[in-house]
Design goal:
With about 350 residues, this protein is mostly helical. It is built from 13 helices and 3 strands; from the N terminus they run E-E-E-H-H-H-H-H-H-H-H-H-H-H-H-H. It is globular, with a radius of gyration of 21 Å.
């Protein structure tokens, strides 16, 4: 492998393949990884009983420790689920925002999360889904169906970014109303369980909940590398891209599908954890200061947001544990309003 330096970038070449690496993005990714590692250790240390960082590292290395049960069996699975869910949401948000060319676009906004929610709530409220093991399948199916519906409705001789966002918002509103109908008309006990799932929570999460994402994320890694290269192609306006011979429709469809799948699997693992997919790409973009939304930084930021939010959810009102979606919602709602105000001022 060889490297060629450009202004702000490094071109990595391995045989005939080449990859353009933004140096500030690489530094930001390393810093995010270090902060994320520290947050993971803190999350494993803190709880009803406090464990020293040294003991946590001992357990993570597989060495005998008196805290193996608390750290390895109780806390670590929850943190692993948080890492996977946050990474998937951060990456999904970056892909959807790239396709839509809009910082307000995310799986929460364009209907994917509400598709998963409406499907799970409907099936739970009417007793079709009765076990926790069936919930991820229902969430993934509902999220995929809603995302593909939005994409098809937004298609008119090509995908138009503004139509994609507006139709996604309309589908989200319709699905949220349908969810309310399911909650009021279905079985009361099942509807209450569905309400708990709707908050987005890692309470009681184990490796079973991580099953979908444990193989989806590694399988998505090569596609994410392709998407990182394709980002530069779809940053052109449509006329320029077509003139250069780029197949914009295929690129956008591939990136949108990847984002929809990741967001649906994340919802299946932990429920709809609001605003992570909206915030993480924009935070990563401001840290990296790159022309396109950095995918790796977005995934790391999403993981950091979820793990940190879950730590706060466990400790703010201890011994009562809040759902992680409540904490991300409290942070994300003001952030969304700030984005709306900022975009309105930019457009005026």
């Amino acid at each position: 492998m060889s490297a060629v330096a450009l202004r702000g970038y490094t071109v990595l070449r391995a045989g005939r393949a080449s990859f353009l690496l933004h140096r500030r993005s690489a530094v930001a990714a390393c810093c995010l990884a270090l902060v994320l590692a520290a947050t993971v250790v803190a999350s494993l240390c803190l709880g009803e009983s406090t464990v020293s960082p040294g003991e946590v590292v001992t357990v993570l290395l597989g060495r005998p420790s008196p805290h193996e049960l608390v750290v390895g069996e109780f806390r670590l699975p929850r943190v692993v689920v948080g890492l996977l869910v946050g990474s998937a949401l951060g990456l999904a948000g970056a892909l959807i925002q790239t396709v839509a060319r809009n910082p307000l676009a995310s799986p929460d906004v364009v209907g994917v999360s509400w598709g998963a929610t409406a499907t799970v709530v409907g099936l739970m409220a009417y007793g079709v889904v009765g076990s926790a093991g069936q919930v991820p399948y229902a969430a993934v199916a509902g999220g995929l169906a809603a995302g593909l519906l939005v994409y098809l409705l937004a298609w008119r001789r090509g995908l138009h970014a503004q139509r994609f966002v507006l139709i996604g918002i309309g589908v989200s509103v319709a699905l949220s109303s349908l969810t309310s109908v399911f909650l009021t008309k279905g079985d009361g006990f099942q509807a209450q369980a569905a309400k708990v799932w709707m908050t987005g929570s890692l309470n009681g999460s184990g490796y079973d909940q991580a099953g979908w994402l444990a193989w989806v994320l590694p399988a998505a890694a090569p596609l994410a590398l392709w998407a990182a290269r394709a980002q530069r192609s779809i940053s052109f306006d449509d006329a320029t891209a077509v003139g250069l011979g780029l197949r914009l429709d295929r690129i956008r469809l591939g990136m949108a599908l990847l984002g929809i799948v990741l967001a649906s699997c994340a919802a299946g693992a932990a429920g709809p954890v609001d605003f992570v997919a909206l915030m993480a790409p924009q935070i990563a973009l401001r840290l990296a200061r790159s022309a396109q939304v950095p995918l790796l930084c977005s995934a790391l930021t999403g993981a950091l947001v979820v793990v940190l939010a879950d730590l706060l959810a466990r400790r703010l009102l201890a011994p009562t544990e809040l759902p992680v979606g409540v904490v991300t919602g409290l942070v994300g709602a003001p952030y969304l309003m700030w984005l709306l105000i900022r975009s309105r001022r930019g457009g005026s």
